[in-house]
Amino acid sequence: MDTEKETPKILPVVDRDDLPPEKPLHPNLPKPPCLMLLCSPIRTGKSTIISNLYLNDNFYGQDYFDSVHILSPTIHNDDTSRYLLKAFDCYDGYSDKVIEDIITHQKNFKEKSQMPPISICLDDCLGTIKREAKVNHLASRFRHYNIKLLMISSQKFRHVSPVIRTNATAVIVGSPFPNQQELDKVFEEYGDSYGGYENIKKIYKICCPERYNFMFLNLAENPPLAFKNFETLVAKGPNILINNSVENSNNNPVNVDEEFMDK
User: Fold this and answer.
1) Domains of the chain, with CATH numbers?
2) What percent of the chain has pLDDT over 70?
């Protein structure tokens, strides 16, 4: 009997042909499925970033996801978030039951291809979330439920659980960041992807010369990319592409305009 076999070679898995086509998205934005971690101190434009991501058609906009669920203890008090409150399903704080109900709804569909593409945003909830909370488990499994964007924002990086930090594929770090120890933790966590602590520190300084600027780390790319805001590519892995003199013609904070709600 001939027992010889061909040299084992990994073959690609055939792509599915029953999935809906991907919706158009600017290449500078993180491609779903994505766990986005937004770490930015108070009064640095965090709510404005979230509003643009969900309401501005140049970002994801209101038609990208079938539904958006926002859990935030300040959603009813933050004037910047008033359009989010009008447009999406909003809850005034974190609840395991809310997360469970969303997952149960998705699991009612037999196939992932039938699950509606959705997004969940937790804004400033992490300080009240216990280690065994459902969202910490969801951070490693959100793709299974067709959650295209799981966004988690926090003013303090140390409130973010290790499982969320590890599974994040996109990280936004705002400015100014007065707590240097918090900022150091960010550099220590993601520095190895960008040439080490000192190098990512340089990248952050290039990305954030003024208030409301932010550093966007796209960790899903290989090599990982770093942007000033979502506009200027600053680094590919350890390679810094521009110097400290780079200027952006649009450094002013962006206000959510009425046109976002005119649709």
Assistant:
1) 38-168 (3.40.50.300), 171-244 (no CATH)
2) 88
Local structure of 135: helix, strand or coil: helix
Helices (H), the chain: 46-55, 82-87, 96-107, 134-138, 162-167, 180-190, 197-207
Of the candidates 165, 209, 167, the residue with the CA atom closest to the CA atom of residue 187: 165
Q: 30-64, pLDDT tens digit by residue?
A: 999 999 999 998 889 999 999 999 999 999 999 99
Spatial separation of the C-alpha atoms in residues 106 and 120, rounded to whole Å: 13
CA angle (127 as vertex; 37, 198 as ends), nearest 5: 45
Q: What is the pLDDT of residue 253?
A: 37
pLDDT at 245: 42
DSSP-assigned beta bridge partners for residue 153 = 38, 123
User: In the predicted model, is pLDDT for residue 127 greater than 80?
Assistant: no
d(CA 263, CA 260): 7
Residue 45 near residue 155, CB atoms below 8 Å: no
b/e 55-81 (16+ beta carbons within 10 angstroms → b):
bbeebbbbebbeebbbbbbebeebeeb
Q: Which of 247, 254, 194 is nearest to 225 (CA)?
A: 194
Lowest mean pLDDT among 73-77, 126-130, 149-153: 126-130
Could you tell me the pTM of the whole model? 0.86
How far from 135 is each of 34, 71, 96, 146, CA to CA, in Å? Answer: 14, 11, 8, 15
pLDDT of residue 2: 59
Q: 107 in helix, strand or coil?
A: helix
